[in-house]
User: What shape does this take?
Amino acid sequence: MTDILMPKATAVWLVDNTSLTFEQIADFCGLHPLEVRGIADGDVARDIRGVDPITGGQLTRDELDKAQENDSYRMKAVVSRHAEMIKAAKPAPRYTPVSRRQDRPDAIAWFVRNHPEVTDAQIAKLLGTTKATIESVRNRTHWNSPNIKPVDPVTLGLVGQLQLDDVVRKAADKKAKDDAKKGGATLQSAEEIAAQEPAEPEFVPEERERRGAEPTAESVFGKN
Assistant: This one.
């Protein structure tokens, strides 16, 4: 049964303007059959003015005709076209078992090292931690910093692979959009790249050692 607006006022109208049974009216309006009987007798809702559910868009004429022809038929209310606009209840915060809470700093360190594009808010929501803890791991001010090692959160069993992939993909897409808005990376010209690189010394071939004149007996044994 779909809840309707002003059920008692609707019941008053149905009692006064239709041949429906008390049970049919009670079922449609979410009331007890005895309460509907009290409305018919004038003991209940005496000062309430009836409201036409057909004009109000809560009931179709076809549904009413079917119900009046068959006492066992139960009318179905029209679902409001605005029902889909109602926001769902906010999901409860992610719960991490006590046995795995000591693994969260390792998972945070993994994000900091491998995926800096993932925001602290995304990490906090995914791992069920706080931004303060993330900041302490990043700045190595965490009380257990010497023992923290980057470990994949999937390996630690803190999240599923699909969840991790989805967060990383969204963070990468957002970073790409932000970079595009800022104009993106500028390509450097060949001259700029060359200017940044240290100049190599010019290659100068070594001079060949010149051989002197052929030795003579005089130069070897001296003059007599």
Observations:
- The mean pLDDT is 79.
- Residues 7-81 form one domain.
- Residues 135 and 172 are 21 Å apart (CA to CA).
- The first helix runs from residue 7 to 17.
